[in-house]
Amino acid sequence: MEAHSYTAPARVKALLVPLGNISESAFKKYVGKVRSSFEVRLVDVTPTENSLFNPQGFPNGRVIYDFQLSLNDQESIFLHDFEPFRKTFVVIGITDDPNCSNDDIIKLSKLYKSSITHTAIVFSSKSENESNGGKIFYQSKTNIETILCDITRNFLNDLAAYLSSFQHITLRSPGTIGSNDRIKTMETKKKRISSGSSLSLSLGDSSNPKLSLSSSTERRQSKVKGRQLKILGNLYLLAGKYNNALKEFNDAVPLLRTCSDYLWLGSTLEGIGVCLVMLTFLGVPYQMPSSLNSVLHTTLTIPTPSSTPASTPRNSMAINGNSATPSSDISRFSTPELIHHLTVKVLYYYEISQNDHEDYVPQLVYCESILRFVKFMCVVNIGGGFNNSTIDHIVRGKKIYPKLQNSLFDKMDILKFSNKILTVQLKDMDILSQAKIYSSLASIYGDLNLLRKRSFILRTLFVSLIPELSNNDHSTKTYELSELLDTILSIYGIGRSPETALEDSFASRWVQLHKSVIQLCIIICSKVGDNRRVILFKSLLLTRYSDSLTDNEQSRLLTEIQSICRANDLPFTYFDPFLVRNIEIIKPINTPKKQKQASITNNKEDPFIYNPYAKPISSDGVYLVQDEFVEFQISIQNPFAFQLNINDIQIDQFETFRNHFVIQPKAINTLSVLAKPLKSGTAQISSINIKVFDCQLQSFKIAKTLKSEVVRKLKNDKSFHSKVLEEYEENLTKNRVDGKVNTDELTLNVISAQPNIQILSKPDHLMLLEGGSEKLQLTIKNNSPVPANHLEFSVWDSTIDPLKNVLNNKGLPANEVYEIEFFLFKNPLKIINEIAEIKPYETITLDLEIQGKRGMHQVNLILDYGNKVEDEIYTRRVEVPIRVMVNPSTDLAGCDVIPLVQQVDSKRGDVWEYINSQKDCNITDFALFLVDLRNVWNKTLNVNIDYDGFGVKESIVPLETKRILIPIRRIQIQDDDNLKMVPNLSNRQYILPKITKAEDQFIREAFWYREEILKKLRGAWSVGDVKGEIEFRGIRLSQRMLSVLKVDKVDIKVDVEEAVDKKGLHHVLQTDEFFNVSIEIRNNSSNDIGGILRNIPIASNYGSIDRRLLFNGVLQQPLKNSIKPGETVKILIGAVILEKGEYEWGVTLDEFDTEQSHIARNPLRIRAF
């Protein structure tokens, strides 16, 4: 509560102290609960044994507690008998120990002897000691309001006993007890009285014969009686019985006035004013004290404030003229007006009491009386009058909201009273009292928005504190300056936190004034030996005012902070909360990837282990491995003019490698920090722990960018902080920067420990011939304690990318696409010995075989490995590059297919020997496949070629081309009219080129007939011990070649039925001799065939055969029945040759439905003699 509130004399000071072993946090929490119930209604208090302060006498009353945590009345003990409200009456022990006993109450009584009531509140669910004489209360069974009602009853009982002690003692004024602090001014009293008061008073009380006493004895008795009544009124005021207090004060006024006891009379009149406010607060009607008629019955000369344009008849401070105020007019005054008149009288009596060498007013009483009334005027001014909200603020300290309407007191009225304090020299007061008075006066000026006056007062306080502090022995007397310093900092606007709030960072500041005030605070703290606050103030300069400090000043402040800390073994906090600007992780070279369920298959069952189109099946993100180092890049800023020494950087959930860095002045550096995660899971890095210089390890959030919220440009009435330094220190230690900058967070996935495979040895550069192969070995080792039980090998070679580029040509026909994809999927590397697992720290050797692939210069063996646990696999990849040079060995220069029509003696060559060895075959069932093979290597190649049991061995010298003859049985493919499409090895979407149906049919036939050849055709070469295979996929078939290779759909054979001699291709017959021509028709298709059979005999000289050849029947005749698939029909035609010569007998079959013609492949050749 406000220490200088007008109703402070009606508050009971109660000290809250920790009892037992209660923790600081618990004590603070319970103190908050107790403070929330500071007001106790007398109607809720149990009646007391003594009737004097019995709450039933005035049930509307209130006991208002002022709970405090420290004794701050030690400097004003000499005033306790004069103004009892300054005394700490109640001591309450706060504990959570259920074993609290009366012994603890006795200890409190011995420790705080001046207090009259000692109790304890136990915040515990257990209550073992219920018999405690009503002094120990358990909050678990009773709410805090009821407990305070019981404590209030004890206080009222003890207050009655305390009052009885005044009956047998003489009440002396503070001046006779030991205080010598008279009011000292720089002018004479008369001048100050006439000039300082806002009223011109005609006062002559002491010369009034009606008020004089007959003897000194009666005067002394009146003084004693008046003082006792005044003290009783003060105690009634504390007890909440405001009507009784008003009566006692009213009775004391005439007694004190008749004996000219002006000091006690002034205090009594002030008590009456407090009673009037409290009764108004309660809404209890009261009768105007009769004593006021005589006291205020005087001529009042009230100057009209002509300088105030807003003066109205409502303003009681603007009464016209020099008018007498009769006693009958006093009842017409409002409460604030009465208090104003009473205060004028109080100050008058206080000032004239200075003529007495014993009963004079102390400086503290005089100044605080003025402050209480000025506070009263200020609240009425701000609140727009004496209304419920202002009364609540005066009594209860509730928040008040400013109103712009006219009030009873304007600023000029308030300043006239507040200026009285400035005429008093306060240097003889104790330092704490000076600080309180100056601070309250500064607070009043702040409330009135008189900022320059406020600044002047506080600077005056600071200047006066320095010599006072220098003259004291700090070892025997310590000053608690935190509250004062925080108040001063708040008033000057230094309480704003630009390092934590964006709004505060844009608020206007008087930088030089702030620096001057902070320098004064540093000097004061240095004088009292408070090194911790010296460090905080110097740090504050670097945090908030570094831009206004020179480079030398910044360096000097750092040096001073470090020297103080080293000399006193004190920690200090680094002063830049935005030290960390960014953090990134350098992606490790070989990070594990999480494999999806679809990829967890057996290598043997995966037909596409060598798939150049295969993409890694993994989830997004980077996975870190537990206990494996990773590199972080942390951006650190140094806005100061000195170097920063980073002595340690730590990251939560990581173990960092010991590091030390130096950041140059006014720079932002990126630091590389090695760290390894300590456990698996999700690691969220929102802050980094850094030790700068010899500071304690601090947590710094990642300050990315300044927030872009719109800052209000209107003046912001920000409430002053009560603990500026403490909040500043918390801002640094807790790094509260979220209100000013956008902070960042780095989320990382950490998996459990994984295997780590190392390549110990790999092959050197190899040279191969195309089609050749070479075996090699690869040694690998598992360098981790985790087994690698998931191994997946794959291969990449340098031909993949060029072949993919060729495939991008959308105009390629399907057969060419197949050929390119065939070579694309051709695996040049094989693993001979398969392995399923590599145990921890095991070394194994892989046996490999590499084959020469045309155009290849490098092949990579890729191993994806990991540790499979419950169908969850994280794999790493290791690649072994093998450099190779593949030289060409053979080249397919060309090929052709020719038909065979003449039987040749088997002794004339391997081809004919092979053909003649085939049973049930004619020579026309074969074709001769010609292959032109070229040796492009620089050594002789031994070539072996095999086709369906036929073998050829040749030696080809360098750069020689040899034609190799291979007999091939004609190929029959069922339903070749509906051949399948050319396969797509990559399963890619294939866009059909714009070709005709006939062209598409040719492509299909050429592809499938060639595939039939390649199934049986094998070739190999050798050069010494080096062996390899011949690649025949360069074979291309033309339309003519296809017609030779294909078995006809309708096979027509023409022959002489009788056995006759043959010479070469001709059958030898005699002229004029009858013979039969046998025509066999076989249906090799899948459909029935019907049509017209045409016989076409011709002479070799192409002459007419009408006179040379006779035949029986017709040459053209339809087939009687359709020929079923696979069926053979034989037709005979008789004929006679009349003239010798050579003849040919050809046959054709013209189908009815398809209009196709089938010709006998070998016509019948006849030579007649």
Automatic annotation (TrEMBL):
Domain Trs120/TRAPPC9 fourth Ig-like per the UniProt entry, residue ranges: 1051-1168
Principal cellular location given in the protein's record: Golgi
InterPro entries linked: Ig_TRAPPC9_Trs120_1st (IPR058565), Ig_TRAPPC9_Trs120_3rd (IPR058567), Ig_TRAPPC9_Trs120_4th (IPR058568), TPR_TRAPPC9_Trs120 (IPR058564), Trs120_TRAPPC9 (IPR013935), Trs120_TRAPPC9_N (IPR058563)
Location of the region described as Disordered in the Swiss-Prot/TrEMBL record: 190-221, 304-328
Ranges of compositional bias, category Polar residues: 317-328
Domain of life: Eukaryota
Domain Trs120/TRAPPC9 TPR region residue range list: 336-568
Biased composition, class Low complexity, residue ranges: 194-216, 304-316
Ranges of residues in domain Trs120/TRAPPC9 N-terminal: 4-291
Domain Trs120/TRAPPC9 first Ig-like as annotated: residue spans: 585-752
Alphabetic keyword roster: Golgi apparatus
Entry annotated with the keyword Chloroplast: no
Subcellular location: Golgi apparatus
Residue ranges annotated for the Trs120/TRAPPC9 third Ig-like domain, each copy included: 891-1046
GO cellular component, one term: trans-Golgi network
Pfam families assigned to the protein according to its UniProt record, in alphabetical order: Ig_TRAPPC9-Trs120_1st, Ig_TRAPPC9-Trs120_2nd, Ig_TRAPPC9-Trs120_3rd, Ig_TRAPPC9-Trs120_4th, TPR_TRAPPC9-Trs120, TRAPPC9-Trs120
PANTHER family: TRAFFICKING PROTEIN PARTICLE COMPLEX SUBUNIT 9
The protein's name in its UniProt record: Uncharacterized protein
Organism field: Wickerhamomyces anomalus (strain ATCC 58044 / CBS 1984 / NCYC 433 / NRRL Y-366-8)
